[in-house]
Design goal:
The chain is of the alpha/beta class. It has two domains: about 5-220, Rossmann fold; about 225-290, Alpha-Beta Plaits, CATH 3.30.70. It has helices at about 50-55, 95-105, 115-120, 140-150, 170-185, 195-200, 220, 235-245, 270-280, 295-300, 305-309, and strands spanning about 5-15, 20-30, 30-35, 35-40, 65-70, 70, 80-85, 155-160, 185-190, 205-210, 210-220, 225-235, 250-255, 260-265, 280-290. A hairpin with a 2-residue loop joins strand 10 and strand 11 (about 210-220). The two termini are about 30 Å apart.
């Protein structure tokens, strides 16, 4: 597939009086395919916002190159076919949802009332079109933001924390809209800390840390190699300590005779079960589970900085 976003050694350097030159984004090689939902993940200060600002042409890179929808970053023509919804969009609170769309539509020369009403209907705000923004819930504000981001019929949407701070129902509503965008053939680039949401909807992800891409690829590939949870009763603290000593990569918990072992998939489950039976314990369950994005994220960002270079 064609690349909606492609960067080659993209770098942004800032000067610091205390630390000299600091590469906030360091030789970034990123590829986002057209028509996919792409998750851009990383801890605070990792370089996510700086990367997005460079892709949007708000700031310019110190080195390397990048392309958005086939055009070099900074090309003004590409702004006509992309959209950006920040984490905390600001709207004039005295305006209604319909007036917001009219206002921002005028910036694109759009005056088609039917388009504004269709977008309100698309984000399930048609019944609230006469309410002012200060009467909107957080979820409604996110939905009017998504409606605004669709005014220019973009091929690529940048969404910064689209579900941040929302209640579970609003989460589902925004998630369904994002999936709908992909079904329409749009590319969606999401920066988020909501890892469970990212895991549900994204096709591929990249994890940035200390300005460098540490992991990138299809979610199914990155999360391959799951874990097994083994639960047993009737055991001793000494047995639990021995299991922990023998299984270095496992998480062992013990309380009132119950042992819970969270072990990597490549550990020999039968060996653990045999040990439980030899100790006259009672096996309760063995549950295989897929590796979680949260596990991968923590494993990646917790590496010391020296290892990330």
């Amino acid at each position: 597939m064609a690349a909606a976003i492609e960067t080659r050694n993209l770098t942004k350097t800032y000067k610091s009086k205390l630390r000299g030159n600091v590469n906030v984004v360091d030789n970034l090689n990123l590829e986002v395919e057209e028509g996919e939902i792409f998750g851009f993940l990383g801890p605070n200060g990792a370089g996510k916002t700086t990367t997005i600002k460079m892709l949007l042409g708000i700031i310019y890179p110190t080195g390397g190159e990048g392309y958005v929808l086939g055009k070099e970053i900074g090309d003004m023509d590409v702004h006509k076919i992309i959209s950006y919804l920040p984490e905390r969009p600001y709207y004039y609170e005295h305006m209604t949802g319909l007036e917001i769309l009219r206002f921002y539509g005028s910036l694109f020369g759009i005056k088609d009332e039917s388009k504004f009403h269709a977008l309100l209907d698309k984000v399930n705000l048609a019944a609230d079109k006469s309410k002012t923004i200060n009467q909107f819930s957080k979820g409604m504000q996110q939905r009017i933001g998504l409606a605004q981001s669709l005014l220019n019929d973009p091929k690529l949407l940048f969404l910064d924390e689209p579900t941040g701070g929302l209640d579970p129902i609003a989460h589902i509503e925004i998630r369904d809209l994002i999936l709908q965008f992909r079904d329409e053939g749009r590319t969606v680039f999401i920066s988020s800390h909501e890892l469970s949401e990212v895991e549900r909807i994204c096709d591929r992800v990249a994890i940035i840390n200390f300005g460098k891409i540490e992991r990138q690829g299809k979610l199914d590939d990155l999360l391959r190699g799951g874990r097994n949870e083994i639960v047993a009763d009737g055991l001793t603290r000494e047995f639990a300590d021995q299991v922990q000593a023998d299984l270095k990569d496992s998480i062992v918990s013990f309380n009132a005779g119950r042992l819970i072992v969270d072990a990597p998939e490549d550990n020999n489950v039968n060996t653990i079960i045999d040990s439980v039976r030899s100790a006259k314990g009672s096996l309760v369950s063995v549950t295989p589970r897929r590796r979680r994005l949260e596990d991968l994220f923590i494993e990646t960002v917790n590496k010391p900085k020296e290892e990330s270079k």
